[in-house]
């Protein structure tokens, strides 16, 4: 059974009249890549600041590894909350030694994290000579010092070019394969869809959806159907209790069905009613479309 790494219960944070986090509740399971998704100002960074004990909440509670947060548990969490500060005129390797001293951990894992982040060949180079992507990878390497159980990343691909984004994305997935739980805040829907196993969508500090990314996309799927006699098709569709909505779109109909009911079952049903389909296709919405739909409903 998977351990609950992080549990948040009705967490709130007020800045005067502004409520940055509004009674947020969620759980993060061991081994997941958990995305915190939302537009700018949705409360992502504030939430991360609270669970890292950098920001004091106005209400609610959270726990790490089933316990009240402590300094000892904090040692099991690596994080990049803001733009990391490194010394520009010393090497990447020596920058990591300084951070290891601050964290109180040994230098033993430095070669390993440099290798993981594909920086071994540039470990002796001065930090100022690094590209933006290399600087971000060094920041993740710093967060990995001390072999944390959890890695927290705030907008890890922000400002990177497409190649840098792809590199960081690949490395995050590789880190997760080692059993490290990753919590990642982002406003980039495409990155969350490609990286994360689970997601919470925030809007004005509120949880408007939590679940598996794959389930969300599957749940938002439509089945496209078409027939020579569209009126007869529509009549039979409306008699089917497994269909939750029907939308006409030019020469086809977009049908939303209950969970567990698929296109094969729908086709079999229509054949039994004498309807031969000329068009049948399952169309899954992107995370972006689903995200925008959720926001528009609020």
What does this molecule look like?
- This protein is α/β, with parallel strands linked by helices and 298 residues long.
- The protein folds into 2 domains: 4-216, P-loop containing nucleotide triphosphate hydrolases (Rossmann fold, 3-Layer(aba) Sandwich), CATH 3.40.50.300; 220-296, Alpha-Beta Plaits (2-Layer Sandwich), CATH 3.30.70.
- The protein contains 11 helices and 13 strands.
- It has helices at residues 44-51, 71-74, 92-103, 110-116, 132-144, 162-177, 189-195, 213-219, 230-239, 263-272, 287-296, and strands at 4-15, 18-29, 33-37, 59-64, 77-80, 150-154, 181-186, 198-203, 206-212, 222-227, 243-249, 252-257, 277-283.
- The strands form 3 sheets. A 6-stranded mixed β-sheet has the order 5-6-7-3-8-9, sandwiched between helices. Strands 11-12-10-13 form a 4-stranded antiparallel β-sheet, covered by helices on one side.
- A hairpin with a 2-residue loop joins strand 11 (243-249) and strand 12 (252-257).
- Helix 4 (110-116) crosses helix 5 (132-144) and helix 5 (132-144) runs parallel beside helix 6.
- The radius of gyration is 24 Å and the shape is elongated.
- The mean pLDDT is 87.
